[in-house]
Inverse folding.
């Protein structure tokens, strides 16, 4: 029998396997310590796991409501009010999604029309651009420069056009580990207020912020939140990235549009996990309140352990990533350096250039410190030998 293979014309021809998958595979192949992909090597809270088992055993195993289970939406509304001084309507302004990834995709799909321009800040998380491209939008990127990665608001204003539809931001920022302050949100507001421009604020690391003034959320800005979709992830907060439960908060009209996409993308999210997360938010709010201290201790231990290395560690104000400059060690480009580091030194990291559309000539790697102390110590020992 003859076999014919047909190959569809790709809608995303430039995309291959993500660097995160590649580096994790290389780390496994070479038995390297994996500080590349952003996931903890420790488990989440016992109470959360017990509540998941409880709800499964109680038969909460059928479809959840499309918008998310009521107790979870209520708990999210209460948490948002407690943290950001603004209480969204749990029925019409909160949607539970399959991780932050789905919320980002649904928001972009709902808002971006063919030919619309979308501004994002490079280095940027890798899921934004493909979603914009599939929606027919055009990415307009602002290249932030190390070590501060601050936004130059004049350059930002110069990039706006009548076609600008959406601005995608991320704070605390993966991969630069920098955070926006309230003044950044005010500058953003001043720049966009005269046009119909929407804001997609990726705040998945909202609880992993080391800034003295805490995490600044778009939801705290009274005017911006009227046109913003704020995205969060329980995976980051509860060390359970594999559960893939996130949510977004947006005003009624925006939420209605996001839900139209969410309804046919996933329809609804894992029921017992949602119920368990609601219990966790209500019973142990101190978990997320203590998260900055929890991760600060790991960050500081890792920085201390790297002090004798020839890596230059950049400031880290949020997320569980550290940036390190390796120019004193190697002249390889960052992708080649990360491959070499994995194969020859036994530590896997992520090159920063993969987060940028334009050439990124800096010698920077991203190291994930959401790891057990022994893992971090072992990695630092290897890195100190370079
Ligand atoms: C900046 C950023 N946004 C979104 C996500 C995706 O979150 P989730 O796993 O909840 O889909 C990640 C995960 O690494 C991230 O770093």
């Amino acid at each position: 029998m003859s076999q014919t293979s047909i190959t569809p014309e790709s809608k995303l021809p430039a995309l291959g396997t993500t660097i995160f998958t590649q580096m994790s595979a290389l780390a496994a192949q070479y038995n390297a310590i994996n500080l590349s992909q952003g996931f903890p090597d420790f488990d989440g809270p016992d109470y959360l796991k017990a509540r998941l088992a409880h709800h499964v055993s109680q038969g909460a195993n059928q479809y959840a409501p499309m918008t998310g289970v009521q107790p979870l939406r209520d708990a999210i509304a209460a948490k948002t009010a407690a943290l950001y001084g603004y209480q969204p309507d749990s029925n019409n302004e909160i949607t539970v999604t399959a991780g932050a990834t789905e919320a980002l995709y649904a928001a972009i799909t709902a808002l971006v029309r063919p030919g619309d321009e979308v501004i994002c800040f490079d280095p940027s998380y890798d899921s934004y651009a493909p979603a914009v491209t599939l929606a027919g939008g055009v990415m307009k990127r602002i290249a932030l420069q190390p070590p501060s990665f601050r936004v130059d608001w004049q350059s930002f204003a110069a990039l706006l056009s009548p076609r600008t539809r959406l601005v995608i931001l991320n704070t605390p920022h993966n991969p630069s580990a920098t955070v926006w302050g309230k003044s950044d949100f005010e500058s953003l507001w001043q720049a966009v207020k005269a046009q119909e421009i929407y804001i997609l604020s990726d705040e998945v690391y909202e609880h992993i912020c080391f800034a003295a003034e805490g995490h600044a959320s778009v939801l705290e800005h009274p005017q911006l939140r009227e046109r913003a979709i704020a995205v969060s992830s329980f995976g980051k907060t509860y060390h359970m990235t594999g559960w893939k439960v996130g949510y977004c908060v947006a005003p009624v009209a925006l939420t209605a549009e996001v839900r139209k996409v969410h309804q046919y993308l996933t329809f609804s999210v894992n029921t017992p996990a949602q119920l368990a997360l609601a219990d966790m938010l209500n019973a142990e709010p101190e978990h997320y309140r203590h998260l900055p201290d929890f991760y600060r201790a790991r960050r500081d231990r890792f920085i201390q352990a790297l002090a004798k290395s020839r890596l230059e560690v950049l400031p880290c104000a949020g997320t569980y990533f550290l940036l390190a400059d390796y120019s004193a060690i190697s002249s390889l480009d960052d992708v080649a350096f990360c491959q070499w580091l994995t194969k020859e030194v036994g530590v896997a990291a992520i090159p920063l250039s993969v987060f940028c559309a334009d050439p990124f000539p800096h010698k920077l790697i991203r190291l994930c410190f959401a790891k057990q102390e022994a893992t971090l110590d072992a990695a630092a020992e290897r890195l100190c030998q370079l």
Q: What stands out?
A: DSSP finds 13 helices and 13 strands in the chain.
